[in-house]
Specification:
Elements lengths: L1 E5 L5 H6 L9 H11 L5 E8 L5 E5 L2 E7 L11 H11 L3 E5 L5 H8 L5 E4 L4 H5 L8 H6 L4
Parallel strand pairs: 1-2, 1-5, 2-4, 5-6
Antiparallel strand pairs: 3-4
Helix pairs in contact: 3-4
Length: 148
């Protein structure tokens, strides 16, 4: 099975290959990517954007990394569509997993390469969920009503 991840951060390996600062966030994704790539029946590719001028393809430790040139704006990135089409046609993924939807970069992939096997992970909302964890029940009330 071939899986393409779309991420909002460049992984450490391609960061080093591009002589960019290594990111300090997303560590859980790096570990998960290693575990997924170690499965004998899975081929993993990870795509992200960077501030460079050309599409980069690097195969490092069994993972194919696509780094796509892009200058961050809040507008829809139509210029990314040809890159996504090229990547998807070359890699031919069975599944495309979008890690985070806060930027429209992945939308450009969906528009350029429409098919039925997209998966989306929503990330970074733990702090917001925590606000509702106890449904506004005061801690003292919770402690009085704890049972085995």
């Amino acid at each position: 099975m071939k899986i393409l991840w779309i991420t909002n951060t460049i992984f450490p390996e391609p960061s080093k290959a591009l002589d960019l600062p290594v990111p300090y966030t997303g560590g859980w994704m790096y570990g998960l990517a290693r575990e997924v790539a170690n499965q004998s029946n899975i081929e993993l590719a990870v795509a992200s954007v960077y501030s460079g001028k050309e599409l980069r393809v690097d195969k490092i430790n069994g993972i194919t990394y696509y780094t796509i040139p892009y200058k961050h704006t809040n507008k829809y990135p139509r210029k990314l569509e040809p890159f996504w089409k090229s990547i998807c046609e070359k890699f031919t993924p069975d599944i495309i997993h979008i890690h985070g939807t806060e930027y429209p970069r992945a939308l450009a992939c969906i528009k350029a390469y429409p098919f039925d096997s997209y998966v989306i992970s929503i990330q970074g909302i733990v702090n917001k969920i925590g606000n509702y964890l106890y449904a506004n029940i005061k801690p003292a009330v919770l402690l009085r009503n704890i049972t085995f």
